[in-house]
Amino acid sequence: MSEVLYAPSATLTDTHHPTAPRRSDGWPRLPALHTETVFVLASLYFLIFFNTAFLRTVLADRIAGSPADIGFVVAVGTMLIAAHFILFCILVPRRLAKPAIVAMTLIGAGASHFIGHYGVIIDPDMMRNVLVTSRAEAAELASPGLAAYIGAHVLVMTTLLGRVRLIHLSPGRAALRRLGSIVLAAGLGLAALMLVFQDFSGLMRNHKALRYLITPVNVVYSGGRALTGETLHQPTVRAPVGEDAHLGGSWTAGRKPVLFVMIVGETARAANWGLGTYRRQTTPQLAMLDPINFGSVTSCGTNTETSLPCMFSAIGRRDYDETRIRNSESLLHVLARAGLGVAWIDNQSGCKGVCAGLDTYTTLRDADQPHCDGESVSTRSCWTSSTPSQDKRATRSSSCTSSATTDRPTIVVIRRPSSSLPRPAAPAICGAAIPRQS
What we know:
Elements: E1 3-6, H1 12-15, E2 32-33, H2 35-50, H3 52-58, H4 67-91, H5 97-118, H6 124-132, H7 135-139, H8 144-162, E3 165-169, H9 171-195, H10 197-206, H11 217-232, H12 249-253, E4 259-264, H13 284-288, H14 304-311, H15 322-326, H16 331-338, E5 341-346, E6 359-362, E7 410-415, E8 428-429, E9 432-433
Parallel strand pairs: 2-3, 4-7, 5-6, 5-7
Antiparallel strand pairs: 1-3, 8-9
Helix pairs in contact: 2-4, 2-5, 4-9, 5-8, 6-11
């Protein structure tokens, strides 16, 4: 026999049975299917349920119901199904087909939820952020809606797959069938592309981010790029910057050492910034301080992994080079070499290499702390004014040495969480409050 059913109690005659046999729970089984057929059906499911944002963008400027637009949608859908199908055929052996489809369903449901609710694109930068996000920060994005959405899709897919019997072929026939299926899918995808090449190529050229809405291929591709990039960008020794830096006479002329507090926050759009020209006041506490607002500042990127190292580098945005930035010392290293005390207080997901080798303090969550919201110790962040002196469990490096002293000029960088503003309390380092300088 060249074909048997991949099920412990199945026989060859089951394949040709006029009616599907029933399971022990009374539900009928679906017909026996080849693995490649199941991949096609799963890819169709992904297209319908996980790629609504992509299809909505593709059809934004088209007339609904016209024959040309219907043909365009069919061609694009064929390409997406072919892409997911080929991905399955290349990466997933038959024995892992069902677990792999369930895993991709979980990933696709999560990605489509965030794309639909937050308008994000799943590109390599976004996946790099995901890989370095702390558990507390990730937990803040969790919601009952997210759990219900993912759970519903996984339940549906698991139920359907549980009623499908996979046909088992000999290794030779299975390999030939898999290869032929890949060639056929590639041919269909290429033919569909040729039919709408002019419109589709123009669309993808004018909307480069559109390709990162194709779910869950975007997660697989961007995740691979992010992992590869992280491996390549791990510096062993950072290139020194400003080796001749030293403090001028004005820094030591005063009777009291200077304390400079720098607060690093989240990216904000200038068009929606209350201190700028936005019609609504979005930063009332900052406005009360009558600060100087720099209205023409452009970030290197819209994610922390890109923008934070760039902010503190000597390279900057104009000559942006991610590899050079990640492998060079930051401004904080130059200040420390010049003789300033440098301390980084983190209430987020790290300094992204900016404070590597320098004194770093991480505030931990504690319901008893006055600056924590006390809702859930495991998932909520504390206010940034919660410093090591107020948090006995804070992680301290070097046992409070050198940089965290008050006998020399000091710069304290506070990394605040999300959109919460730091409260106007005096910073404290290593148990000793540092008075604010007038």
